[in-house]
Protein 1
Amino acid sequence: MADWTLEKIEALDATDPLAAMRDRFHIPDGVIYLDGNSLGALPRATPDIVDNLIRRQWGDDLIRSWNTHGWIDMPGRVGDGIARLIGVGTGEVVAADSTSVNLFKLVIAALRLRPGRRRILTEEGNFPTDLYVMQGIQDLLGDAVSLEAVPAADIAGAMGEDVAVLALTHVNYRTGAFHDMAAVTAMAHDAGALVVWDLSHSAGALPIDLNAADADFAVGCGYKYLNGGPGAPAFLFVAERHQNVVQPPLSGWMGHASPFDFDSQYRPAPGIGRNLCGTPAIIGLAALEAGIATFDGVDMVVAREKSVALGDLFLGLMEDKCGSFGFQLACPRDGVQRGSQVSFSHAESYAIMQALIAKGVIGDFRAPDILRFGLTPLYLRYRDVWQAVEILARIMADEAWADPAFQARNAVT
Ligand SMILES: *Cc1c(COP(=O)(O)O)cnc(C)c1O
């Protein structure tokens, strides 16, 4: 790929079918943002939407807004907005709580649908909160369940008649490698197990078709590719066939069939709504709704093509310009097998990332030694990738990362 020139890269930007989408976002001057997979950029529409919600709806209309501005319907309405991005229909998704809490709810709901089976199977190297939540479930339920984390290649071999739930993250946060959702789901179903997918690194990044994969349950994150803002509500999906049989473990009043009857007995709501627990975070949901609107009119197949092309360009330029600096590829080379990110390992990756951030190239470091660059096709240009690699090459050639200022660890990496 040694024949890349800035002119050729600018030509890619000129013919990019998604080029206009960048205007939907506030991208600060001097910043190349390669971290939309950790915190999506601010949509331009969000400040006014949130301002209106706070000043007019909350400020002037007060508690009436639950009805007049449809606040009470927001978890379902925002969920319906996410549905298109993950290949499901209306009434199959709600936006609520955090991904961790939703995973807790759905793993237990799935376990309850498979009485007599005690194994929960997951992947070694799954995202830590997913592992921690399942460890907590094991502690809570004691001998009734047994949690096993196995390498990705061993999942099929570990599947068996005693597995109740297989809980996997679709795209791996470190490597960007992803599972074949339909094949893995079919393999688990053949053994009678249910599957809970975590879509945190795939919703809004790859085309997902949960219903075509015959998926049972899914959770995902609102603040990454969905651009919902820091700590945005997460989402959860329950396939229609399970909706009226699942027993939510967090049986709060917002999941009650009739919360405003103030009945003393819990009765689950029909449908997806029973998976809600407490009062929805309305300000957060309004920002998440604005984040999802950045996908209006976007064909996820086109977004995926651009994401693969951005990743291929990144890897090609790294070989050209940074090939002698000791980076090891830590993601699949083949774009078809890679989520919307590229990653590399390097002994000095923390300091290198700090040096990059100081130059306005924001990616992230993931322990122990990974440099990760998220590729968000809605607001990233080909020329941003070019420039990011140019800046990285300069940092490596000058050993700018060796500055002691880049060694000190922050609380959030
Ligand atoms: C980001 C992420 C989460 C985040 O969980 P929260 O409870 O929202 O903090 C969970 N799982 C995966 C796989 C993630 O990538």
Protein 2
Amino acid sequence: MTQSIASEMHAKQPKVADEDSFREFCHGVVPLDARVEPWMTKVLTGDHAERVVEQHGSPVNLVNDDPFVRNIRSLNEVAVDAGIDFEVFFARKSNKCLAFVDAVRSLRCGIDTASEEELSQVLEREIESDKIICTAAIKSSRLVEKCIRSNVVIAIDNIDELLLTKQLAGLLGRRARIALRISGFDHGTTRLFSRFGIDIHNARSVVAEHLINASDSVFLEGVHFHLDGYCPYQRISAISQCIDLIDDLRTIDLKVKFLDMGGGFPMSYLDDGSQYEQFWHEHRAALLGSRSEITYRNHGLGLTNVNQQIVGKPNCYPYYQKPTKQKWLQTVLTSEKRGEGPSSSIAAAIRSRNLQLRCEPGRSVLDGCGMTIARVEFCKRHPDGYDLVGLAMNHTQCKASSDDFLVDPLVVRKIDDRLLGVKTHIATEGYLVGAYCTESELLLQRKMVFPSGIARGDLVVFPNTAGYLMHFRESRSHQFPLAMNLIAQSDESAGLQFTIDSIDTVDV
Ligand SMILES: *Cc1c(COP(=O)(O)O)cnc(C)c1O
């Protein structure tokens, strides 16, 4: 009953049909213009977004796998140019939608699973075992058993896991396929810290103690690492040291076939690097008190003013960076392999050893693949002189590890003032707030400008949220249902189509 009254109210409003107008209705006090894919523009033109939210609730996640396919293909092209055997294993934890698992299957690339449930779902969707790795941070014996039974490579993090794997393989009378996760690489005068993996300086003795006479129960197929951060030179150090390790392992008759360089391929959410620089410049000025704040109550985003000195580091993803994706991979592959002189590149070192190079990108291959749309439920003036715009959404629905999502949202207006010829909205500035009952429940810390206002019923769109932002932190606190996930496909004949992703109907 209530629903039909609500839809009737909607039906009476005139529709917006103005391409690109969604960019004009909202920007940061210091703007950070989003990169928007053509499929997103299509969805936001006309009344698709409004209909989808009406039907599936707010917020709603929309995904599209065309950019995913393009991103993976362009990594493969770099590898072809470098002449190496190469395989992408998509890190599934970065987005839960099964649309991407299905895309992996049709691309015949690989997938990296981080839990028993992720693995089960991938196996159910008939991904071949050769195309799966399990890198779960915590591995129960059930998970290890499942990997062994289904012939999936297990990335071994520690000796307890290795012993468990050997024991279970023995009990099952099968051979477990494993890769050793390595960390602690030397890099210049420092070492690369990680809580994961076996220290590179102990790796040889661990192998000698636990793997040399264990060929009945385990097959060491690969050496693996995954580093924090996006520095290509750290990867060059790690790859070089892993190649040396593989050389040593091969001399003791271990037939290591692949080197897996993990994920962390960088991407950019913004096209304009100068905007990003300007943002941090203005933010520092605001923290020093030399301009008005550009974040909620001068939230530092990792920076603090200590006696008029800015200390700390931005606690945010580098929303603009260079090089990214395939260019970054190319930089790594064409760099010199440490210890082999300037004539030997990483690619040449991999090629001459007949190694397969694997990688596990998550975020970067989802670049352009998703957006999150939420409905404005209220707009109110705070006594401090700014507006609070309340969305039917909570902060876990557009959140990864960054202090803030440094990309301007888009706004789809319910009523187009210009079409109506009346001004129902007046310009305003303020913050987007969410549904959790805490003072800190902001959807974005950054202050937004709405040059022609914003009002109940308008839609706020967070662009490019497929990598981590949609699902990594999502929670059912307050008993809010999780957001629905729809696949948006645009088809020449049928136009735009929205289908519910199977993740919302499976019950693992
Ligand atoms: C998270 C993770 C990845 C993916 O990292 P991205 O930054 O999304 O590319 C790959 N491998 C492992 C082991 C991970 O934990």
